[in-house]
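// run 5 | inverse folding | seed 20
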């Protein structure tokens, strides 16, 4: 076998390849340029569409941000109004409680004063009662002493009268025997 055939077949294949390659190269470059132009046009259209979408998204985001800010401001205003209302209610309740506590403190003070006066009056009444009881006891002791002195004097008078001749009854007359 001939060795040059090994070399000739690839050279013929290369020649056929190069012939078709160069004939289609310009066509392929034109297709590539056309495809590149189409891709660039598509990219430009996509970029334009993307820019439009971004603009729409930006406007929408700005609108939503404004709405959100308005909602937050409204919520904050409502929360602040509620806070202020609660604060006013608490202040009113506190003032009412303070007024009530002052009134009760004054009432407690007057009741304590009245209690102190009543205790002092009770002490005075107890002292007066004890003084009256002591005086009654002294009076009873004096009356008893007077009664005892009266009984003693009566006893002395009775003893004197018993001793006197006038106190003796006259003798009874004798009975006559006439009967």
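// decoded
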């Amino acid at each position: 076998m001939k060795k040059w055939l090994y070399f000739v077949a690839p050279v013929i294949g290369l020649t056929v390849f190069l012939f078709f390659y160069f004939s289609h190269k310009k066509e392929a470059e034109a297709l590539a340029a056309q495809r590149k132009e189409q891709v660039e046009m598509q990219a430009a259209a996509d970029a334009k569409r993307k820019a439009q979408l971004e603009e729409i998204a930006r406007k929408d985001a700005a609108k939503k941000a404004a709405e959100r800010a308005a909602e937050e401001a409204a919520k904050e205003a409502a929360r602040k109004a509620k806070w202020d209302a609660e604060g006013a209610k608490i202040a009113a309740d506190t003032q009412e409680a303070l007024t009530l506590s002052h009134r009760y403190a004054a009432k407690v003070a007057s009741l304590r004063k009245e209690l102190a006066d009543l205790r002092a009056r009770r002490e005075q009444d107890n002292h007066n009662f004890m003084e009256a009881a002591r005086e009654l006891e002294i009076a009873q002791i004096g009356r008893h002493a007077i009664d005892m002195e009266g009984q003693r004097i009566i006893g002395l008078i009775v003893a004197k009268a018993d001793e006197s001749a006038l106190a003796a009854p006259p003798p009874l007359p004798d009975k006559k025997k006439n009967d």
